[in-house]
Amino acid sequence: MPLQPILVVEIFDVWGIDFMGPFPNSNGFLYILVAVDYVSKWIEAIATKTNDHSVVCKFVQQNIFSRFGIPRVIISDGGSHFKNFRFGKLLKKYGIDHRIATPYHPQTSGQVEVSNRQIKEILQKTVRIDRKDWSSKLNDALWAYRTAFETPIGTTPYRLVYGKGCHLPVELAHRALWAVKEVNLDYDAAGRERKLQLGELEELRDEAYESADAYKNKMKKVHDARLKKMDFQVGQKVWLFNSRLKLFPGKLKSKWTGPFRITSVGGYGNFEIEDMDDHLRQVVNGHRLKPYLDSADIHGRIDKDDYFLAPASESPET
């Protein structure tokens, strides 16, 4: 399916939220709950002992609503910790649109997935070998992320949110501390400087919007250029990829199930398929499908990139 970037208008309008983990036990904490603003790339995250809906509700109220205002949209996966009555009731109370990422096709929540990966990379470089101190290093990782240059917005999340650069320890140790002391001695000069920064903030955010839009268009071209068109016809037999199928280690079993039959071709690369055993139907993305070839029809064909060859009475084994 071609990449469809999410159009975001205002800062803090759209947040993506997701759980990371479980990780090695760190002072009783096993998970990290992460939320990222789709415009500024600002991250809020906490270490948690569980990954249930009560943790999510408390987090969005304390770390998002009370600090950044009520967003218009929150994007998450379809996990029970996000898709439940209590969380839905909370979002409905404040008029927030809850959007669920398509199962097995999580590009909808791509921004939070990218942020998760970056936070993990930072933690990997700072924790001990046993990795059991990650909960105490989380705030340092967040600080590093917030003050790092982000290509999509052309600046740092910290500067885009606060309109000024963040004073880092290395700067304070050398020159910035003296500059701060001098400015603080002259309140009028400090006031004029801050007004100038706030005046530049709107221009900075406009530039960030343009930079993000150009970056998304560039990524869309790269993504779409690698797409392989899925041509399936009504009545054709296919295999269905089930990425959530739990397999035992070393078990020689495929995550491709079927066969299914194509019953209709929808838009945006979606197909309706029917189970040939119980005749249940479902709509899936074409990237989860591969043609099914009956050995009764084709003899001696070698399994190639896009095909699985198996006897009509057997399931595919890989």
What do you see in this structure?
Pfam families: rve. The protein is of the alpha/beta class. It folds into 2 domains: 14-225, Nucleotidyltransferase, domain 5 (2-Layer Sandwich), CATH 3.30.420.10; 237-310, SH3 type barrels. Helices cover 36% and strands 20% of the residues. The strands form 2 sheets. A 6-stranded mixed sheet has the order 9-8-7-6-10-11, with no helix packed on it. A hairpin with a 5-residue loop joins strand 2 (31-37) and strand 3 (43-48). Helix 3 packs across helix 4 (134-146). The longest helix has 39 residues, at 187-225. Residues 245-252 and 299-318 have low confidence and may be disordered.
Question: Strands, helices and their partners?
Answer:
Blueprint: E1 14-20, E2 31-37, E3 43-48, H1 53-68, E4 73-76, H2 85-93, E5 97-100, H3 110-126, H4 134-146, H5 157-162, H6 169-172, H7 176-185, H8 187-225, E6 237-241, E7 256-265, E8 270-275, E9 281-285, E10 289-294, E11 308-310
Parallel strand pairs: 1-4, 4-5, 10-11
Antiparallel strand pairs: 1-2, 2-3, 6-7, 6-10, 7-8, 8-9
Short description:
With 318 residues, the protein is α/β, with parallel strands linked by helices. It is 36% helix and 20% strand.
Integer count of domains: 2
Mean pLDDT: 76
Largest pleated sheet: 6 strands, mixed
CATH class of the largest domain: Alpha Beta
The helix fraction, in percent, is: 25-40%
CATH topology of the largest domain: Nucleotidyltransferase, domain 5
Q: For the largest beta sheet, what order do the strands appear in spatially?
A: 9-8-7-6-10-11
